Amino acid sequence: MAAVVFVASFLVLAFVGFLNAGYLLWKHYRNQPLVCPLTHDCSKVTESPFAQLLPIRNEVLGTVFYVVVLLGIIGTIVFPALQKWGHLFLSITAGSGVIFSGILVYIQAKVIKNYCFYCLISAFVTLLLFVNSLALVFS
Q: How far are the Cα atoms of 59, 88, 137 from residue 131, in angstroms, in the given order?
């Protein structure tokens, strides 16, 4: 029963993360400013030199990340025989996402000295996905 709750919450979190990253991607490519509910300027973060890894924008990486984990959790539902390895894959993937997000939050705090509300949401969702994936592995 607990595993069902973890799978459902993982699905919801991955979808929320996808919507968040997709929104950032959509706003960037439409050249529309972000409305930041914090007292910070999101565009200072999203348009900084740290907004991409080599030629790939962080919004693209985030969107791909959330699609991969969504497909991964759906795969464990459709193919129950792969659950053990699928949950391990999701933990490794989400753990990698936490490390990347942690680096980006550090850069926001210490280098840019500004925060992006949507980026912080993404980091938090990724952390929750990682915790959730560990619960799936050990349930």
A: 22, 12, 10
Q: What is the pTM of this model?
A: 0.94
For residue 77 the two structure tokens come to: 């539902």
Query: Concatenated DSSP letters for 48-106?
Result: SGGGEETTEEHHHHHHHHHHHHHHHHHHHHH-GGGHHHHHHHHHHHHHHHHHHHHHHHH
Measure CA of the first residue to CA of the last residue in the chain; give whole Å: 10
Asked whether the beta carbons of 18 and 67 are under 8 A apart, the reply is yes
DSSP-assigned letter for residue 107:
I
Amino acid, res. 81: A
How crowded is residue 74: how many other Cβ atoms within 10 Å of its Cβ?
Answer: 14
Q: Whose structure tokens read 């490390």? A: 99
CB 123 within 8 Å of CB 62:
no
One-letter amino acid for residue 105 of the chain: V
Segment 69-90, tens digit of pLDDT: 999 999 999 999 999 999 999 9
pLDDT digits (tens, 9 = 90+) for 2-24: 789 999 999 999 999 999 999 99
